[in-house]
Write a structure and sequence with these properties.
By secondary structure, this protein is mainly β. The chain is 0% helix and 47% strand. The chain is built from no helices and eleven strands. The protein is globular, with a radius of gyration of 13 Å.
């Protein structure tokens, strides 16, 4: 069992930055690939970024490449999402996710074992 708690969301103007954190409980955190998803009002939940168990492999959806960085600290049971050059279209609830099994880069929501409660990110123009 893994419990995930996100923090760091908020409101920012376009071009600004935010850093999301996701604290995980459980001693098996390092065995999971981790991911961030987001869901805007009226839209499906979409994959944003993922990272393998050691942090050596990362993958991003095209719309955030070069602006977002996912990282993890297994000693702290925490995964991060650094978001720079934010755009109004990045506005969404952001969810931390734990994915079981072999790392596969891109994930669909139905492949996720555990979800956080979500944190709101609002980017104004």
């Amino acid at each position: 069992q893994v419990q995930l708690v996100e923090s760091g969301g908020g409101s920012v103007q376009a071009g600004g930055s935010l850093r999301l954190s996701c604290a995980a409980s459980g001693r098996t955190f390092s065995s999971y690939a981790m991911a961030w998803f987001r869901q805007a009002p009226g839209k499906d939940r979409e994959f944003v970024a993922s990272i393998n168990w050691s942090g050596s492999i990362t993958y991003y959806v095209d719309s955030v490449k070069g602006r977002f960085t996912i990282s993890r600290d297994n000693a702290k049971n925490t995964v991060y999402l650094q978001m720079n050059s934010l755009k109004p279209e990045d506005t969404a609830v952001y969810y931390c996710a734990a994915a079981p099994g072999y790392y596969r880069r891109n994930y669909y929501p139905n492949e996720i074992a555990y979800w956080g409660q979500g944190t709101q990110v609002t980017v104004s123009s």
